[in-house]
């Protein structure tokens, strides 16, 4: 199965700032997915990122808040913009890989 | 829109007890079904998956799940749990024609007491 390297693993950020999360896959994949896991809750899909096209966002998530880049078939970034304490969550990337493999996650705390 | 329900939010068992965690989904078409486990402080790991074929699926660590299409269910089972099975368990569904996105249930926290 694919191996995903996600970084940073955790960060504490000031409100109003932005954080960019990187996700590197060891093989080429068509689609990459970004999820959010709020404290004590399940995973919610933020957006699907295809190489060469704009990401597709789920209801409740907008590009201005969560801009995504997908410059090639092995890499993607998610930016959490203008952060507030409500953005404190774990953010995960995932690829479809005969069962969907997940990165180790980025634990974000906004203070 | 597809949705996934896990009715047991918290389960407490003693070691060697049998486990069954419920998972129901709402989607009338072809689905792929998954169970993931998240051990404390660790990332999600795939336990097992169902795409087609034998509805009884065996996964890692002695877990199995049965797909019952008529009940829209995919319950997870283990005949004898261990303390190391303490974790959170997530059921997830990927419906055909949904551009491969996974929809997760709310999760079940399992605590196994030694």
Q: What would you say this structure looks like, in words?
A:
The complex is a heterodimer of chains A (111) and B (114). Chain A is mainly β and 111 residues long. Helices cover 0% and strands 51% of the residues of chain A. Chain A contains no helices and eleven strands. In chain A, strands 2, 4, 5, 6, 9, 10 and 11 form a seven-stranded mixed sheet that branches. A four-stranded antiparallel sheet of chain A has the order 1-3-8-7, with no helix packed on it. Chain B has 114 residues and is mainly beta. In chain B, the strands form three sheets. In chain B, strands 2, 5, 6, 10, 11 and 12 form a six-stranded mixed sheet that branches. Chains A and B meet through strand 5 and strand 10 of A and strand 10 and strand 11 of B.
Structural class of chain A: mainly beta
Number of strands of chain B: 12
**Total DSSP E strands of chain A:** 11
Question: How many DSSP H or I helices of chain A?
Answer: 0
| Approximate helicity band of chain A | under 10%
How much beta of chain B, percentage-wise?
over 45%
Radius of gyration of chain A over all CA atoms, rounded = 13 Å
State the order of secondary-structure elements of chain A, H for helix, E for strand: EEEEEEEEEEE
Strand content of chain A: over 45%
């Amino acid at each position: 199965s694919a191996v995903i390297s996600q970084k940073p693993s955790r960060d504490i950020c000031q409100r109003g700032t932005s954080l960019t999360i990187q996700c590197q896959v060891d093989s080429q994949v068509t689609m990459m997915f970004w999820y959010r896991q709020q404290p004590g809750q399940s995973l919610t899909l933020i957006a699907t990122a295809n190489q060469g096209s704009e990401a597709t966002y789920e209801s409740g998530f907008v590009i201005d808040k969560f801009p995504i880049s997908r410059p090639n078939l092995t890499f993607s970034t998610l930016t959490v913009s203008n952060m507030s304490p409500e953005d404190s969550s774990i953010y995960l990337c995932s690829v479809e890989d005969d069962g969907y493999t997940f990165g180790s996650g980025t634990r974000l705390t906004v203070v | 829109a597809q949705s996934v329900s896990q009715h047991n939010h918290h389960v407490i068992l003693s070691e060697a007890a049998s486990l069954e965690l419920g998972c129901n989904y709402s989607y009338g078409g072809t689905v792929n079904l998954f169970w993931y486990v998240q051990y404390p402080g660790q990332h999600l790991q795939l336990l097992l998956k169902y795409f087609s074929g034998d509805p009884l699926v065996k996964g890692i660590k002695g877990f199995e799940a049965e797909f019952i299409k008529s009940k829209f269910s995919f319950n997870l089972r283990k005949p004898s749990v261990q303390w190391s099975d303490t974790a959170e368990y997530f059921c997830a569904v990927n419906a055909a024609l949904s551009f491969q996105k996974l929809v997760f249930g709310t999760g079940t926290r399992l605590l196994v007491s030694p």
